[in-house]
Amino acid sequence: MNRQLRQLTINVGRTTEGSLSVLLAMAGIFALGVGLGVSAARAQGPVAAHTPTDYTPQAFGATTTFQPVGRAVVKVNGVALTDRDLLREMIAIFPYARQHNGFPKAMEADIRSGALRMLIFEELVYQEAKHRNMAIPPAQLAQAAAEFRQQFHSSQGYQEFLKAEFDGSQAALQVKIERSLLIDRLLKKEIADKSAVTPAEVKAWYDQHPDRFRVAESFSFQSISVLPPHNATAAQLAEARRRAALALSQAQATSSYQQFGLLAEKISEDDFRVMMGDHKAADRSKLPAVVATALAAMQPGQVSELVQFDVNSYTILRLNAHTPAGMQKFEAVRDTLRDKLIRDRNEQLRSALATRLSKNARIEKA
User: Fold this and answer.
1) Are strands 314-323 and 307-308 parallel, antiparallel or unpaired?
2) 314 Cβ contact partners less than 8 Å away, ≥ 6 residues apart
3) Which DSSP symbol is given to 43?
4) Is the dihedral of CA 210, 211, 216, 218 positive or negative?
5) Which residues pair with 323 in a beta bridge?
6) What gap in Å lies between CA 35 and CA 56, rounded to an integer?
7) Which helix (H) or strand (E) holds 48?
8) Contact status, residue 92 vs residue 36, Cβ threshold 8 Å
9) How far apart are alpha carbons 199 and 49 in whole angstroms?
10) Cβ contact 320:313 at 8 Å
11) Distance between CA 254 and CA 169 in Å, rounded?
């Protein structure tokens, strides 16, 4: 595919900073057979009938440079946080890791850096909650523990997780759950509860920023690409044409976003395959002319014929939405704008809290 369509961005932060969601995700992923941070020697047998029968970092897809074994990666005011904790945060940032057997190499460094920042931040929040003598009511703690347990398909899976992550200690898991709840409670108090915006504030922001609501023509679409090697031989070009024709027949047999996306994940050779081939909303002026022309002639849900960027590169497009140029009405953007203002305020408060907590903290990276 043309290089203009081979760009990929990543958000290395999380809008919701809650730690309990990360812990629940850890349980859910382990229950499906991933076993976050479990060494090969400690993962004997499956945790679900439809999952792999054993685990190694390579089976999960972790690169050879990152195989979690419980080694400390950072100390925050003397408290050691491990590479297993780091992997959980990386999964929270890039939840596609399970489907794709790991993290794309081009993205892994950024994911890891963002996860490390989040890991440090959450530990500082936890320490602040303890400093304030915050506590979780026993009933809430028991409910959270029950919800955590329900993430597993079987008692065996739960026990394997408990053994792998907490040396079989129910008490250690209880401490981890309580820690997560304390982090969530302090973040709610310092961020979520202070992030609300009024309807009047939303309308005022809309009126004061009219240029923000003038939209260019855009297309939301997915792609599947077949890209022969650079300086391909005649035989390789012929093979690319054959694969492109096969991909087209498969793509045109799909009938939904999900089906096309799963096919993109399986056979596409452009970078967007890790996002189900999804390019989201793309400004027409920033798209290659051949792509814009093809999309403009399509109806939402339609799959294109083969689109060629040059003589030998092939792409198949699925149009999901076409937005004409114009001015968005307040009623159409009110809810989205309110959410944006809340997110902005949330991020401002989070950043201020992180700065305040880290000001006198002792952070030692391993």
Assistant:
1) antiparallel
2) 225, 226, 227, 240, 241, 244, 247, 306, 307, 308
3) -
4) negative
5) 218
6) 9
7) none
8) no
9) 50
10) no
11) 48
CA dihedral 330, 331, 332, 336 (to 10 degrees): 80
Q: Which of 310, 288, 315 is closest to 226 using CA atoms?
A: 315
Instruction: Dig out the tokens for 286 from the structure.
Output: 């920033």
Kind of pairing between the strands at 214-215 and 79-82: unpaired
For residue 142, give Cα distances in angstroms to 56, 129, 149, 173, 242.
33, 19, 11, 12, 58
Q: Which amino acid is at 43?
A: A
Give me the helices (H) in 102-208, please: 105-131, 138-149, 155-166, 170-190, 199-208
Selection from 29, 157, 158, 11 nearest residue 94 by Cα: 11
- Could you give the CA distance from residue 352 to residue 189 in angstroms, rounded to a whole number? 14
CATH class of 217-324: alpha beta
Our measurement of the distance from residue 225's CA atom to the centroid of its chain's CA atoms, rounded to an integer in Å, reads 23
Residue-wise pLDDT for 139-173, tens only, equals: 999 999 999 898 888 899 899 888 888 889 999 99
CATH of 9-190, one of 3.40.50.620, 1.10.10.10, 2.40.370.10, 1.10.4030.10: 1.10.4030.10
| DSSP classification of residue 221 | E
Structural domain boundaries in the chain: 9-190, 217-324
Give per-residue pLDDT as tens, 263-292: 999 999 999 999 999 999 999 999 999 999
How would you classify the pairing of strands 363-365 and 72-76?
A: antiparallel
For 331, the 3-state DSSP assignment is: helix
When pLDDT is averaged across residues 238-256 and rounded to a whole number, the result is 95
Q: What share of the chain in percent tops pLDDT 90?
A: 65
DSSP three-state, residue 64: coil
Helix (H) or strand (E) holding 215: strand 214-215
Only one residue has tokens 């209880």, namely 174
Q: Which amino acid is at 303?
A: V
Cβ neighbors of 308 (< 8 A, separation 6 or more) are: 290, 314, 315
* Pair 84, 26: CB distance under 8 Å: no
Nearest-angstrom CA–CA distance, 31 and 148: 11
Higher local confidence (pLDDT), 174 or 21: 174
